[in-house]
Fold this sequence. Notes:
By secondary structure, the protein is of the alpha+beta class. The protein is built from five helices and four strands. The protein has a four-stranded antiparallel sheet with strand order 2-3-1-4, sandwiched between helices. The N and C termini lie far apart (about 60 Å).
Amino acid sequence: xxxxxxxxxxxxxxxxxxxxxxxxxxxxxxxxxxxxxxxxxxxxxxxxxxxxxxxxxxxxxxxxxxxxxxxxxxxxxxxxxxxxxxxxxxxxxxxxxxxxxxxxxxxxxxxxxxxxxxxxxxxxxxxxxxxxxxxxxxxxxxxxxxxxxxxxxxxxxxxxxxxxxx
Length: 166
């Protein structure tokens, strides 16, 4: 009898944006910038897909925001990556490099297997989460939803003031 592997219908997409306290080329951010490529390589090897170094990709119209996007098999693989090794070390130091923001800066959503979301797609999901809280369209690790039936719910009407504060 031969084993068959099942290919998942959906994968978990995540976006995380952060607002810098200093310019990327400043001495204050050297440790962070130096760690980008090694951490992204670990993500690639950990059943994840990282966007790579996307520090020059504009997000939400704010030049001080940087974006990180990745796609994972499920919430367990994302969580395992987040809380181990060099990524964990960087997370422990995030307050040295990034501003504290009160609104949601991270969103998760299910995508068809093999799909790689765009920054525009990620912005839409994040703004939806800010406006409506966790839903199957955009959610958090703390309040997640199953992949079954994942798909867009239609255009999002974002009330003024719910975008990223500059």
